[in-house]
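Next comes a single protein record:
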Amino acid sequence: MSQNTDKCIVVAVFTPLESYRDDIRNLLSRVTPTVHDEPGCEFYTMNEDVDGRFVHIEGWTTRQHWVEHMSKPSVKEILKGVKGKLSRDVEVYEMYNVYTGTSGKGSLSPSSARS
């Protein structure tokens, strides 16, 4: 695995306190389009799971793009906005695809699938 050349996939999980769920949803909904315009952002999706957590699934062209994203005003706004409103710290998982299969369905980058 080469973290410098492989697409960086990140999953960030926000677990809001029940009384702040709408506040967190509104904050993340407002900031998400700003992130879409950041260099290297291939996708940045906001999802809500069945337990009421907000799960961002992100794809960055390189790890460096994600590292740079972490110092952007968008992240600072999110961190400030969630302070005291989550039942646990934001969970962040950085990962890189383990290519499987040959049909392209084993990769988030079908063009990168290895045969």
